[in-house]
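Heme A synthase: structure tokens wanted.
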Amino acid sequence: MLPPDTRPLHRWTRVLFWLNLAVEIGIVLTGGLVRLTGSGLGCPDWPQCVPGSLTPVAAQGSWHKYVEFGNRTLTGLVSFVAVALIVAVVVEQRVYGRRKKLVAPLLGVLAGIALQAIVGGISVHLKLNPWIVATHFLGSMVLVWASAWLVWRSREGEGAPVPVVRREVRALGWVIAALTGVVLLLGTLVTGAGPHSGDANAPARLGVEPRTMAWLHADAVMLYCGLIIGMVLAVRLLATSPRTRRAWTVVLSVVVLQGVVGYTQYFLGVPAALVLIHMLLASLLVVAVTWAVLSLRERAEV
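Answer:
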């Protein structure tokens, strides 16, 4: 029998780590649906949907209220999964005496969910100010990153991290991670300048020319792709772990697919369906980059 601190996590705990990541990506997509269908003010109040009611009322008329309320409801599901995961990890800690360092990050995720709900409420009260909406999306990306980190970390040992590549390669990995944030930021500015403002009646947009922002975003992505190609070559030549090589190949694959979707939506006039796919791929890119950077070192059991 394995000693207590090296036993694997219970199967249901592992499922909860994956479920936590899935619902964080899911709320990004429902938030995208809110914006793309012009339902951002379907519930014109917050935390209530309309003054005097937490839920939509028939007098509101439009179907937009159901889209917006559905996204708000999913916040409750995301919170429930995070709480369930915290409970599961605490039980694992008490029964098996391991994973003590995962409770604090999970509490951080739960706090981030609460903060995101507040930012969403602020965006409603400010009539979908595009800067606040962009902040809301980037906050969701941070939660996706944290959830992806937790999935990876939950499968590792408790030993000290051991690099599997040279220091210069690890540094390039961190540069790519930072540039991922820049690319996401520019992508939100493209959306804020474009046609999908979130409100069908009174669109709120950034005061910049959409074409200019789109090409600035594309230029950053080209640099990003070049660095990732360099990283793929570096890990193929220098990495001692095949997992590292696979992880960075996945990153390159997601980026290429994201680029194809991005250019296609641009030349087709930014159709809503492609924008939603673009948002999904953005979430998957955050996951892939997170895991790829983490794959640059290994942790053994203690």
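DSSP finds eight helices and two strands in the chain. Helices lie at 11-36, 64-96, 103-125, 130-154, 167-193, 210-238, 242-267, 272-294.

Cheers.
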